[in-house]
Amino acid sequence: MEAVLLQVLAGLATGGIYASLALALVMIYQATHLVNFAQGEMAMFATYIAWSLVNAGVGYWPAFLLTVLIAFVLGVLIERVVIRPVENAPVLAVVVVFIGLLVILNSVAGWIFTYTIKSFPSPFPPALGIRYMSPHQVGALLVTLIVLALLYLFFRFTPLGLAMRAAAQNPVSSRLVGIRVGWMLALGWGLAAAVGAVAGMMVAPIVYLDPNMMSGILLYAFAAALLGGIDSPGGAVVGGLVVGVLENLLGAFVIGNELKLVVALVLIVGVLLVRPSGFFGSVQVSRV
Amino acid sequence: MTALLEVADLRASYGATRVLHGIEFSLGERSITAVLGANGAGKTTTLRALCGMVRTEGEIRFAGQRIAGRRTEDIARLGIAHVPDGRGTFLYLTTEENLRLGAYARKDKRAVARDVERMYAYFPRLKERRRQQAGTLSGGEQQMLAVSRALMLAPKLLLLDEPSFGLAPLVVRELFGILRAINAESGVSMLLVEQNAAMALELADHACVIETGRVVIAGTAAELKRDDGVRRAYLGY
């Protein structure tokens, strides 16, 4: 019984990280109706920036905040420079751009920082640990929950958050009330990149830092987003936690650690087959 | 009468199809002008052109400024609100969020809060539904919401694209009564596109008729009501 509890709690900790990245995917999806395959590599790149800052002698938390800020600016820039020109392009063109971004970020990171695996520090003091969870697991879960709460408050209660939601769901009406829709989309990319950066920094002490560190994580996040409903932010969070726990339980007791990634793939295929709108997503009906 | 809006030689096209062939009219401050015409005459496109929602050529002056070719969001910020064809509701947001979005470009928070209450006073049904997702509102309620959302901008000019569309005659009468009251109280000018010509001419002080992208008749509402051609084609007697 204790072993199960251990796995569940550990699952919640990593699940929180999947939830953040899944939320980043959902934010971009709501605005563009496409899944940003480069989300993981953007997070990985931001984590390298944090690593460089810490290595240059900046304290962990200042480096953390600075990284989030830099990731936000990079996210806005990517939207303005790379995504904007293909705004009205066919779906496949945009998907190719996403994949291009993925490859570019991955290679540039490898070129600058090499492919050698590096360790990444955890900022949490040992006192934070509880009987069943390591200090980093508790800390990562706390940080994730704080980020999610802040995002919720921002989108729910600020005029800018409201305008961003409006711009994503009805650009035409948004322009008619004076919302600068283009900038709202860019801000959305910035926020998604910032959330991804937090996820990257929280997962790096667990999976270690290398240019391919996010490929598995992104798969779990994708499964989480689909499970919750790809257009539902709340669903992404629940989905993330569920995927985290499921992955750990199945990995520990059923299929073994080597096949853990299969859980994500089975979930993705399963959800798409059985319930494409996920648990909380809206079913799209269109009149023909 | 000083002109709030002056339109001259306004042309617009969708792709290669030219829809407006040189529209010309002006609209005074505090006035209500009705735009009549058959389906496909270019009424909706005229409103869209005013808001920069289609590619246009020609001259549009609003409160002395040239606005042709400007971006939709900038035109809105100058004080032109648009109740679009199809109502343009933010379906997944609540009624109150829809109203607050209408005032997005305004900075005077207190006046915005007051205006939300003012809209609830005009349309008590919206107050009952304030926390409800706007997509779940009935057609009539959504039309009221669309008018309210546009008014939340505190516009100088309100463009209304068939506000009577899909509404029961009683609801139309109520809506038009409120539009008249709002015009009298706050002095906002209105440009009203309508299929329901009789009701539109009752509300408006000026009117024009558009046929295949051109203004063919313009004058006061009373003049148009007396015009034989207008009477036969649009009033049906």
CATH first level of the domain at 1-79 and 157-165 and 190-237 in chain B: Alpha Beta
Task: Kindly identify the CATH topology of the domain at 1-79 and 157-165 and 190-237 in chain B.
Answer: Rossmann fold
From the alpha carbons, calculate the radius of gyration of chain A and give it in angstroms.
Answer: 19 Å
The greatest inter-chain interface is formed by: A-B, 17 and 28 residues
Mean pLDDT across all amino acids of chain A? 91
- Elements of chain B, N to C (H/E): EEEHEEHEHHHHEHEHEEHH
The sequence of SSEs of chain A as H and E is HHHHHHHHHHH
Largest sheet of chain B: 6 strands, mixed
Strand content of chain B: 25-35%
Please give the share of residues in helix of chain A: over 70%
- Classification by helices and strands of chain A: mainly alpha
What is the 3D form of chain B? Answer: globular
Architecture (CATH level 2) name of the domain at 1-79 and 157-165 and 190-237 in chain B? 3-Layer(aba) Sandwich
List the helices and strands and how they pair.
The complex is a heterodimer of chains A (about 290) and B (about 240).
Chain A: H1 2-32, H2 39-55, H3 60-83, H4 91-113, H5 135-157, H6 159-169, H7 171-176, H8 181-207, H9 214-228, H10 233-254, H11 260-274
Helix pairs in contact in A: 1-5, 1-8, 1-9, 1-10, 2-3, 2-4, 2-8, 2-9, 3-8, 5-6, 5-8, 6-8, 9-10, 9-11, 10-11
Chain B: E1 3-14, E2 17-28, E3 32-36, H1 43-50, E4 56-62, E5 65-66, H2 72-78, E6 80-83, H3 95-102, H4 109-122, H5 124-128, H6 139-151, E7 157-161, H7 169-186, E8 189-193, H8 197-203, E9 206-211, E10 214-220, H9 221-226, H10 228-235
Parallel strand pairs in B: 3-8, 3-9, 6-7, 7-8
Antiparallel strand pairs in B: 1-2, 1-4, 4-5, 9-10
Helix pairs in contact in B: 3-6
